[in-house]
Design a protein that fits this description.
The protein is 41% helix and 17% strand. The protein has 229 residues and is of the alpha/beta class. Helix 1 (16-25) links the parallel strand 1 and strand 2.
């Protein structure tokens, strides 16, 4: 099988660490993007660290250009970057919190999609997987800005799937429930961890979507709720 190139955004985060290791184990050459990522974060000959943020289209194009100039193509984009803020009702949510959720969960996605899709179309194929949230389809009180940003993400990815099916590109979004990450354990010390989704399960699903068996799945919003269903 020819070398497969995967660009993972948020590669050193609570989920990103699992996804990066899973794709490396599956034989991918992985470029891990995160603001402070280092080569030493993953001791693997097929891993390349790309310290960068996705706070503008120019930054995203520069990052994608770096990958393309070195490796020639991007077969997989696993976009894991995101963030959470909540605790207030919509009527009490300030502009800064609302905008921050869209900057983290939607705008960065928009930037990296615009940077990567042209190269995938030129190559005649690719796999795009983004991480949404259960809140995108099952919102709750106090998380209106977060839920709205993730719902918009789902719509964006589904649109990308429709617009690029002619080029052999698949695009899907995974909707996890609360994941068992160090950040979530710190933020919710009283949470019932037994009900949380294991990051390794999400990582395994991403590997499957990138493989031959996942080639016909596109435009899907895939729930991964675990025991918290």
């Amino acid at each position: 099988m020819p070398e497969r190139i995967a660009l993972i955004t948020g590669a050193s985060g609570g989920l990103g660490t699992h996804v990066t290791k899973a794709l490396l184990d599956a034989g991918f050459t992985v470029i891990g993007l995160a603001p402070r990522i280092q080569a030493s974060d993953f001791e693997h000959p097929n891993f390349t660290a790309l310290p960068a943020a996705l706070d503008s289209l120019d930054a995203a194009k520069k990052a994608a250009g770096t990958v393309l100039s070195r490796f020639g193509r991007i077969d997989v984009l696993a976009h894991l970057v995101g963030g959470f803020a909540g605790g207030q009702a919509v009527a009490d949510t300030d502009d800064a919190t609302f905008q921050r959720m869209f900057d983290l969960n939607l705008n960065g996605t928009f930037h990296i999609l615009r940077a990567v899709i042209p190269a995938m179309r030129k190559a005649g194929g690719g796999r795009i997987i983004a991480i949404g949230s259960r809140a995108a389809e099952d919102p709750g009180p106090g998380v209106g800005a977060y839920s709205a940003s993730k719902a918009a993400l789902v719509s964006l990815i589904r649109t990308v799937a429709l617009e690029n099916k002619d080029a052999g590109i698949t695009a899907n979004v995974i909707l996890p429930g609360t994941m068992d990450t160090p950040a979530n354990r710190k933020a919710m010390p009283g949470g019932d961890v037994s009900q949380w989704v294991q990051p390794s399960s999400v990582a395994a699903l991403i590997v499957w979507l990138c493989g031959e068996a996942g080639k016909d799945v596109t435009g899907a919003a895939i729930p991964v709720y675990g025991r918290g269903l």
